[in-house]
Each structure stands twice: as structure tokens, then as C-alpha cells.
Prior knowledge:
This protein is of the alpha+beta class. It is built from 14 helices and 10 strands.
Amino acid sequence: MRSCAVSFGMNNGIAAIAVLTFRGAWRSRLTHCVAALACSSILALVLTARGDGTLSGLLKLVIEYSLKAAFWILAVSGLWAGCGAVSEDIRRRHIQLLAVKPLRPSELWLGRWIGISAVMALTLAVCGVLVGAIASAAMNSSAAPAERKHLGEHVLNARWRLLPSERVTRQDVEKRLADLKADGTISERASAEDAWRYALQRVKWERSTVQRGESTEWTFRVPQSVRVPQSGNAKAWARIRLYSPLRDRRETAMEWTFAAPSGNAGYSLSIPPDGVHYLDIPPSLVKPGATLLVRFRHAGEAEDAPVMFDPDAPIEILVTRSGFAGNLARAVLIIFCWLSIVAAVGLTAGTAFSMPVALFVTVCVFIIASGSAFFTEASVVNYAKVHDPEKISAYARAASWLLGKISLLLEPLARLDPAQCLIDGVYIPWSATFTTCALILGTYAALLFAAGVFLLKRKELALPE
């Protein structure tokens, strides 16, 4: 009975702090300004964005940048509120009023976090509804029927995405690494990690390049979970991603064959060897548990340059799954989990530092963390790091190592990009949504919670243990 009463009391304490935090934030003019700024930024994008001249390109740009603008605006406000939630209580000595109550540090931290997260969730939900309304208005616009058809099929849609089964094996990279070291491309003094990543990149690019008259193929194994709708609206596409260092190249003749146990489909076409292209394929070729073989032949003329595919996503098979609204809701849920982590970082920093110091430290951390993935990816193509590593300064090597570790630490957070899935018309499964949210809340938020409670206990000895 005593344990039940204690548990009930703790829950009441968390709820009370959360409600007080939510009320205080919702009454704040800053919160109203942030909500107005997030919504007005979305409307401003609709009025000023130009895109690539097509309705689909314009809506993709609006959706992506609207969600990113809403995230960063709410992230800054959540960081500000998190840094001040506890640090201001300590500075104004309000914490002493809580210390005489049967309130533990864990309840204080959780209550503040839930309250701040609830305010951000409400504002983000409004932004999500606004994005959905813009998408619906675009679909009902007065644009040409062909543009609305493309929009409905390739943007305002949620489709299964199948990737090729072929993967670069360790043996392939090791063999290429040995060859690059033998011809002097990679120095023996280069770090093992840099040399490996450079060799991996070379293998990917070599496999994605097809000379005139040559062929390549990909194998797709359709999971049992993929269910093609039986309605007449069911469709399937092959999305081809081509890469070219030059622009405005003339069209190149290509031959495509899609072979499956249920039948074949062949295409001969000429398209520019760069950008993203779609090929309609019969949905009957995509059967659960079946194997689909895709062959490509470069049928261009003698003077045509090689066709280069995107090394990370050369070709994808897309199959109709569901509508845009559900996909948007799952994307917003994942973005909310990201925002909750931002609030948790601010709260934990606020228990260790005063408000200005906590805000400065967390902003610096976020700038470094946001740039770590970009600079780490850019360093892959740094030829000097593998050819003349002694010319790289110790400072540059240390910075590269640190950014690499930060990028590795944050990689699970960036593994699923909801905004990119939305504009690509790719279905975000509920399983992936729950897995991502559980990972964010059960790992990153739990570690920040433990650190915040530890720091709060050390800082305020008057709070009960």
C-alpha cells in the first residue's frame, strides 16, 4: 500500500509540474510569437517560393522547407524554455519552495520536460495541419491535369519503396583497397578508417558507371509485407536516379527490362543522363515474396559518355500503398520526438549552468552536431587525406576525428528523414515510426534525464533523495 501511495504521489507531482509549466509557457507572449512565426514562415514560403517551374517541384520545396522551418523555430524556442525552466528557478530561489514539498529531482525534471514538450507538440500540430491544407489546395488547384496527376502519383502519395538486394561486400572493398595501395593512390600512412571509406566510395562509383554497349542489373526481393492494393488505382514505378558532373547533356538511348515470374516488361527510351526519372511498370510484377530482376543496357551512340547512376540509390521500385495524410501525421510525430530531445538538452544544461551560459553552450553544441554529418561526408572525398596524409595538420585530423565521432553518435537520429520521405512520396511505416520514437525517447532522452537528475541532486542538496 505504501509503495502504491508513493507511486501515486510521484505521478501527481509530475503532472502538477507539467501543468504549471504548460500554463506558464502558454500564457507567455514568447510562445504566441513563436507559434505565429512558425505559421507565418510556412505561408511566406507558399507566397515566395518558385521551385523548378512545375507544381510538383514547388510543393516539394514548400513541404520540405516548411517542416524544417517549423522544426528550427520550435527547436530554438524549446531550447530557450528548457535552459530557463530549472536555471531560472534556481536563480530566483523558487527551487527552495519546491524543496520543502515531497518532490524529487526526477519529478521536477520530467514535469518540466513534459510541459515544454506539450507546448511544442501543440504548435507543431498546427503547422502540420497547415502543411496538409496547402497540399490539399495544390491538388485542387487550376494547374494542368498532367501536373495534378504527377503531383498525386509522386508527391501526395505514400508508396512502398523497394531497394536492390545487391550490396558492396567487405571482400570487394578489401580488394579495391589493396589495388589502390599498390598503385600509390592510397598512402600506407593514411589512417585505416579514411583509406577504407575512400575505397568503399571508389567501389560504389565504379559499379554505378555503365559504358556504352555494356549492361548491368539489379535484383529486388519483394518482402511479404508488401501488399499491392487490388483497386484499379494501384500503380508501380521504377525511379531512376542518374548523376552527371555536366548539365544539359543530350538524351541517351537506354534499354530497360523488368523480369518477374508473373511476366516481363521492356522499355526502349531516350532520356537525359542526369536527374530523376520514372518508368511505369505493371503492378502485377511486384508480388509479395517474389523476385524482380531489372536489367539496363547503355544503347547510346559511340560519342555518348558513360551513364552514371547515383551510387547510393541507383534505382528504386515504388508501389502504391496509402495516402498523404497518414504519412504526414507519422512525419510530424517523428519531428516532435526530435524536438523533445532539444528540450531535454536545454533542461539538462539548465541544471548545470545559469541561463545565458546554458543557452550559449547548447547552441554551440547544436551547431557542431548539425555540421558534423556534412563535414564528415565531405571528408570522404578528400583525396589529400589518403594520398598525402602528412600534409594534413594535427588540428585538422583531430577536428575530423571529433566530427566523425559526433556524426556516429547522432546517426540513429538521422537514419529516417521524414521530410525527405514526404516529398519523395515514400511510405513511413508505423513500425519504423514507433521504433524511431522509442529509440529517441528510450536512449537519448533517458540519458539526458539521468544526467539532469544527477546534476540537480548535486546542485540542490535540499531536495529529497
